[in-house]
Specification:
With 377 residues, the protein is an all-alpha fold. The protein has helices spanning 36-42, 45-54, 60-71, 78-86, 93-107, 116-140, 155-164, 170-183, 190-199, 205-216, 224-235, 241-250, 268-284, 288-304, 313-323, 331-352, and strands at 20-23, 28-31, 34-35. A three-stranded antiparallel β-sheet has the order 1-2-3. It starts with 19 loop residues before the first strand and ends in a 25-residue tail after the last helix.
C-alpha cells in the first residue's frame, strides 16, 4: 500500500477543532473566532480561559462563579510541596512542574473522563494550581518557604505575590495577564498534539497535561523564549547585533525566536508583545535586552524576511519576564501556566468523539534476516 510521508506531519490534519484558528499568510490568530488582539485589549486571562474551555464568553454570573472556583482551588496539598522539596535544586523547573502535575492526579482521581462535573473540577484545579506549583518551586529551590495564595488578589497579581511575597505594580499584572492570553492556545502545536495522543487513550487530565508539559519543554517549542534571552545576553550590546546575525546565518545557526511552521509574516502575538514591552518600559524604564532585540530584528529582517522568517511569540516574551525579575528558566513554566487552558480545551473537545490515535509508519528496514547464534557473531 503506497504512503505519502510528511516529516513532522507537516500539513497533515490530525483533528477538526473549533477552538482556535491561524491564518499564517495574513498573521491572524483567533480564539473561538475572536482575534487575540481584541482579547488582550478587553479581556483577562481567566475570561479567555473560560472562552477556550467552554466555547463562549461567560455571562457576568458565569464569570464570577468561574473566578470563585479558580480562586478557591489555588492551594496545593502539603504532600505536593514535600515532593517538590525532594527534587534537586539544580533541576529544571519544567521537570518539577511535570512531576507535580502528574502527582496531582493521585490526589484528585479523574479516571472517569465521561463524568462532566468531574472534568470541570479537573480543569479548575489545573488552571488554578499550576501557578502555585511554579511559584512554590521557584522559592523552594532557593531555600525559601512557599507563600500561600491570597484570595483577594487576581490571577496574575496572586502569582507575583506567591513569587515575591509582595504585590507587584498594577502594570506588571496587566502586562503579564496579556502575556498569558497570548500563550493560552495555538491550534495543533507539538504539546497540544502530545496531549491529544495521551487523551485519546482516555487517560486522566492530569496525565494529559503532564505529557503536554514534557513536549513544551523542548527548545524547538516552549523552551525557545529562554534561548532568546540567552542569545541577547550573548550579543551584549545593540551595536554588536548586526554582526552576530550575519555570523549566525553564515554558520547556518538558528536565530532563536525567529521563524514559525505556520506564519509567513510576523507572528501577531509578537506584535502585541512588542507593544506590551513599550507599555511596560514606559512606566518601569527600558531594558538593554529590548534595544538589542530591535537591532536583531532589523538585521534579520533584511536577510530573512524574503524567506518568510519573522519574529515569533518567543522573541519578545522573555524580555518582558526578564524585566519583571523572573528567572530565565521559569519562562517555559509560565508558558505552561498559560497553555494549560488550551490543552484542556482540546482535551474536552477530543472526548466528544474520541478515537485512539494510532498513526501508520513507513518501514525502512530489512526483511527475512537470518538469526545468527551468538557464538558466530
Amino acid at each position: 500500500m503506497p504512503h505519502d510521508f510528511m516529516p513532522g506531519l507537516a500539513g497533515v490534519p490530525a483533528a477538526t477543532s473549533s477552538i482556535s484558528d491561524v491564518d499564517g499568510q495574513r498573521g491572524i490568530l483567533e480564539y473561538r473566532g475572536i482575534r487575540v488582539e481584541a482579547l488582550c485589549a478587553s479581556s483577562s486571562y481567566l475570561e479567555t480561559a473560560y472562552l477556550l474551555l467552554f466555547g463562549h464568553l461567560p455571562s457576568a454570573t458565569e464569570f464570577q462563579q468561574w473566578i470563585t472556583d479558580v480562586t478557591h482551588h489555588r492551594r496545593i496539598k502539603f504532600r505536593i510541596l514535600d515532593l517538590l522539596k525532594c527534587l534537586p535544586e539544580q533541576g529544571h523547573p519544567m521537570d518539577a512542574l511535570q512531576a507535580a502535575v502528574a502527582a496531582l492526579g493521585m490526589f484528585y482521581p479523574g479516571r472517569n473522563v465521561k463524568d462532566v462535573e468531574n472534568n470541570y473540577w479537573s480543569a479548575v484545579r489545573l488552571v488554578a494550581k499550576l501557578p502555585t506549583i511554579v511559584a512554590a518551586w521557584a522559592r523552594l529551590r532557593h531555600g525559601d518557604a512557599p507563600i500561600t495564595p491570597r484570595d483577594d488578589l487576581g490571577f496574575s497579581e496572586n502569582f507575583f505575590y506567591m513569587l515575591t511575597e509582595s504585590v507587584a505594580p498594577p502594570v506588571w499584572a496587566e502586562v503579564f495577564d496579556d502575556c498569558l492570553i497570548l500563550h493560552a492556545e495555538h491550534t495543533m502545536n507539538a504539546s497540544t498534539f502530545t496531549g491529544l495522543v495521551t487523551a485519546s487513550t482516555l487517560a486522566d487530565p492530569y496525565t494529559v497535561v503532564a505529557s503536554s508539559i514534557g513536549a513544551l519543554k523542548g527548545p524547538l517549542h516552549g523552551g525557545a523564549n529562554e534561548e532568546v534571552v540567552v542569545m541577547l545576553r550573548e550579543i551584549g550590546t545593540a551595536d554588536k547585533a548586526r554582526r552576530y546575525v550575519e555570523r549566525a546565518l553564515q554558520n547556518k545557526k538558528k536565530l532563536m525566536g525567529f521563524g514559525h511552521r505556520v506564519y509567513k509574516v510576523k507572528d501577531p502575538r509578537a506584535k502585541v508583545l512588542q507593544e506590551l514591552c513599550r507599555r511596560l518600559f514606559k512606566e518601569c524604564g527600558s531594558s538593554p535586552l529590548y534595544e538589542i532585540a530591535l537591532e536583531v530584528e532589523a538585521a534579520a529582517g533584511e536577510l530573512l524576511n524574503s524567506k518568510g522568517i519573522y519574529p515569533n511569540v518567543d522573541f519578545y516574551s522573555g524580555i518582558i519576564y526578564d524585566k519583571m525579575g523572573i528567572d530565565v528558566d521559569l519562562f517555559t513554566p509560565l508558558f505552561a501556566m498559560a497553555r494549560v487552558s488550551g490543552w484542556l480545551a482540546h482535551w474536552l473537545e477530543q472526548l466528544r468523539e474520541n478515537k485512539l490515535f494510532r498513526p501508520d509508519q513507513i518501514y525502512s528496514g530489512e526483511h527475512n534476516r537470518p538469526y545468527v547464534p551468538i557464538e558466530h557473531r
